[in-house]
Amino acid sequence: MHAEQLFTGISQLATPRGRFALRGPAMREIDVIPGAALAVTDGRVAWVGPADSWRGTSDVITELGGRAVVPGIVDPHTHAVWAGDRLADFEARCAGVPYEEILARGGGIRRTMRLTAAAPMEELVAGAERRLRALIQSGATTIEVKSGYGGTYEAELASLEAIAAVTPLVPARIIPTLLVHVPPRDTAERDAYITMATEQLIPEVARRRLARAVDVFIEREAFSLAEARAIFEAARDAGLPVKAHVDQFHAIGGLELALEFGAISVDHLEASGAPQIQALAASSAVGVILPGVTIHLGVNAAPGRAMIDAGCAVAVATDLNPGSAPIFSSQLAMALAVRVNELIPAEALTAATANAAAALGLDDVGRLAEGQRADFLVVDGEDWRTMVYTLGGSPVAEMYIAGVRVT
Asked: In CATH, which superfamily holds the domain spanning 2-71+364-405?
């Protein structure tokens, strides 16, 4: 075999097994290859195994200095496009002010929506680029970015256009998602909003290929089951797969509805109980947990341990956003999943790579196996578990995307 590049000097190469989402106990069955080498051709993995088993030739040999290698992190849930900040809200919440009062003062998510809708495109793109570069620096090589802070037809399209504009500015792969996020307060306006989303916004987004999926927030304070059903039906008619924010504060049937429509992921799950966990385990969907929300808001953690024990496929993400998860490190989210959601290190690696890729409908990233994109991280240490052990600093020494070093 001849390869363009051969990476040697790898103390350990750790990667999830298989091809698709790993479920239950399989999440901890990772391959750890000591003394490994990795061959790359045309930006994809051509061979991986013990270095002393390599029998090919290569154009370039890169010595990694006895450090560990893992797949690049896939962050499957971010809201990286917004304007303004929520610092006043944060300070008020720390002082014990109820969220309802913060909203009444003009704060909360509706403040972000007002500022985002009014922001020029240049501001949206610049802000998104800064945030994405922070995630990339932490080890993210594939990042999903949602719209959802626009609130109007024009502003939602502008957010998706900002995602398209920032995509060529960063080295990571960016996956855009249309999020139908927050309904108007007035009933009449709410009905009109659903009509706009289903009859105008979703078809236009599909026509222009501005998003690869449609997400909806199903919650007592957000969209009802009937409204979400209409949105899912519109997405299905437009040929777009669906995802959903569900069970964040209350289990009102959102998870079950999303599974009915074949959702590729159901995200949050902090309020999921045994019935929801069993339904998820029996489905093909990936459950995306967001430990940063638990840390920032002080809410219950998603039952990651119970989900895996029941046979679910679990992924982890930052949920980067200005209100509930100002977490700018995908590696930190993976590390927090161990502390907050009771995953073991191998499960956290799978959750942040192979299963996170599956939560985005991707099958060519998240592993280091033949044919996969050569997206990988060189760990600042000999043991791959440094990736989930480290808090407050980046354990990523080098990053390669499609075999090219980017950090």
From this structure: Urease, subunit C, domain 1 (2.30.40.10)
